[in-house]
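#data-curation
PF: Archiving a pair of folding outputs for the training set. Convention for this channel: one message per protein, sequence first, structure tokens after, nothing in between. First:
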Amino acid sequence: AFQVSPQLWAECTRMAAPPSVDVVVADTENHRVLLFSAGAPEGVVVAGGNKAGDGLHQLDSPCGVAVDPSDGSFVIADCTNDRIVRWAWGAKEGIVVAGGNGTGDGLHQLDSPCGVAIGRDGTIVIGA
């Protein structure tokens, strides 16, 4: 059975699992995304982990993550930054794919996105 110690992260609000038995976690309060590979004793930071911030190498309260089955990249709901970021395997920073233009109701803005999913056709679905 998969067990998680409370010391691993301050607050975890959502998790996503790729087709394998690996587990991906949006570690909200630690501003990072972790990958727990099957059988590994601890997780590996795959996005963020550079303190809270709005740089492309940072996340601020990520609260949703999905794994794109076409390329294995992580699509992250970066809540406090009002953006969706795609982070490739091994990348040092992400690419903004939606929002990132301040909080608002404009068609170029998001307001605290809290979830993300990827449709079979590759469409990114954002939960608000």
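PF: Second:
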Amino acid sequence: PSDRTGVARGLYADVTLRRAVNKTYPVFRGRAVQSDLSTEGGRLEFLRSTFLSEGESIGGSPCRMQIYPPRHTIALAEAAEGEGLAVNPKRFDTMLSAVEVHRHGGRGSDGIGGLYMWGVTEADPERDVVDMNLVDEDGGGGGATGEIDELL
């Protein structure tokens, strides 16, 4: 399948792949940003050249951020809220993804930065709940459209 949900379903349907792949990060092809997410200035620069540049598609809707590696997720989410994005990890309409694809200076070399692929996608209750275990105590889950019980 060419759609991201179909790909996620295909991965989840295969028992061997399901054990190996537990999260998907939809990113835009050919869009990479150099940034140092360990600094406040680097986070703001990253946000302004990525997620904030997609302002119309996000349009004030609640967003979930998934960043790999995850060590900068909380600081990046706080910076995003400071810039006006509504970040909500459980009830969201939009998924913001970023994946470090190259680390300058090697692993653990904060202060140098890395190269990140990134993407903005509409929340998909089936994929986001299955892949990211976003089921609340009351049985609800991420995504504004979701009838999660029907999907599980």
